[in-house]
Design brief:
The protein is an alpha/beta fold. It is built from eleven helices and 14 strands. The strands form four sheets. It has a seven-stranded parallel β-sheet with strand order 3-2-1-4-5-7-11, with helices on both faces. Helix 3 links the parallel strand 4 and strand 5. The longest helix has 22 residues. It is globular and about 55 Å long.
Length: 342
């Protein structure tokens, strides 16, 4: 397990939004001896103390046990958001692939598993108060993302019962943004050809204000810091992660320099459903339904047990992301590759 000079950490989904931040932090950590980053495609990026391994979790042929052998912790971040029109494909990667990861952790005898759950795992909840980690995690069943995150929560319940020797941590972050994730998230949710420069005040005179659209955000680097703390701690269980202030039409309008205009929920959903049905928009109306129902999270436990506090306010996170959107922000990995459209 641990060498005389530090820990060996394996990170799945190491080239995505969260993975690039987690790998960078761990590679700079004096308590970490080595990092193995796993991804479908090897990146043109060489952080210190980091090796890469090409793995497709959707494949039953991937030998995860050999890669996990001798690791002190596995940080499981791998996730596929698309294709939203074929949930069986994302199920194979996100659910069946995650179960392969969990089984390999147990077989290889890895002492700690840090799993990326999400606010999306939570059942519908209040928008006028924050809920802690005891809120039910049954998701919103009509949205594949929420359904898959909730299913893995139940899978981990069984895993923890059967493998009490493995320390399991479930991170439930809010929506995660950074400048470098702008191009990837534009492609995932807005489509390949949505022009990033549209996110400019002079081109957005008003912003739809949809009832129920109130949520939380977090800088990806702040989330990565929580993952690093979890790797080094003895903590177990679930942790909510979010910046303190919430995001709504008012705060978005201020960040964009646009005036909020009330739009009925049914009208907004109909427009999204039409664009999704025509394959013009990757984000499904089912995910829109889920976002309107997500609870606000109380993150006090992460502060108490991990010593974690976010460094950036939600407003800063949004402004940095929007700047990246306008400039085609990205990174030197296949999922994060920058591209300015328009």
């Amino acid at each position: 397990m641990s060498s005389a000079t530090g820990k060996r950490i394996v990170v799945t989904g190491a080239t995505g939004n969260v993975g690039t931040s987690v790998v960078r932090l761990l590679s700079e950590d004096p308590e970490v001896a080595s990092v193995l980053g796993m991804a479908r495609r090897i990146p043109d990026w060489s952080p210190p103390k980091t090796d890469w391994s090409a793995v497709d979790l959707a494949s039953e042929q991937s030998d995860l046990v050999e890669r996990f052998a001798g690791a002190d912790a596995v940080v499981h971040l791998a996730w596929a958001f698309q294709p939203t029109h074929d949930p069986a494909v994302t199920w194979r990667t996100n659910v069946l692939g995650s179960i392969r990861v969990f089984d390999a952790v147990a077989t290889a005898g890895v002492p700690a598993l840090v799993h990326a759950s999400s606010v999306g795992a939570y059942s519908p909840g209040p928008k006028d108060r924050a809920v802690d980690e005891s809120w039910p995690t049954h998701g919103w069943p009509d949205a594949a993302y929420c359904r898959e995150k909730a299913y893995l929560e139940r899978t981990l319940d069984t895993f923890e019962r059967d493998h009490p020797e493995t320390r399991v941590v479930r991170m439930r972050p809010a929506f995660l943004f950074k400048r470098e994730s702008a191009s990837e998230q534009r492609r995932i949710f807005g489509g390949r050809f949505l022009p990033g420069p549209l996110a400019r005040p002079e081109l957005l005179p008003f912003l739809p204000d949809i009832p129920g659209l109130r949520m939380q955000a977090l800088h990806t680097d702040d989330a990565a810091h929580a993952y690093r703390l979890a790797v080094h701690s003895d903590a177990r269980g679930a942790f909510n992660l979010a910046a303190e202030e919430t995001v709504d039409a008012t705060s978005l309008g201020e960040a964009l320099g646009a005036r909020p205009v009330r739009v009925p929920r049914t009208a907004a959903r109909s427009a999204i459903a039409a664009a999704w049905g025509l394959h013009l928009l990757p984000a499904s109306p089912h995910l829109f339904d889920a976002v309107l129902r997500l609870p606000l999270m109380d993150c006090a436990r992460a502060g108490r047990e991990l010593g974690w506090q976010p460094e950036r306010a939600a407003r800063e996170v949004l402004e940095e992301f929007l700047e990246g959107l306008r400039q085609g922000g990205g990174a030197r990995t296949a999922p994060m590759r920058g591209r300015k459209v328009g």
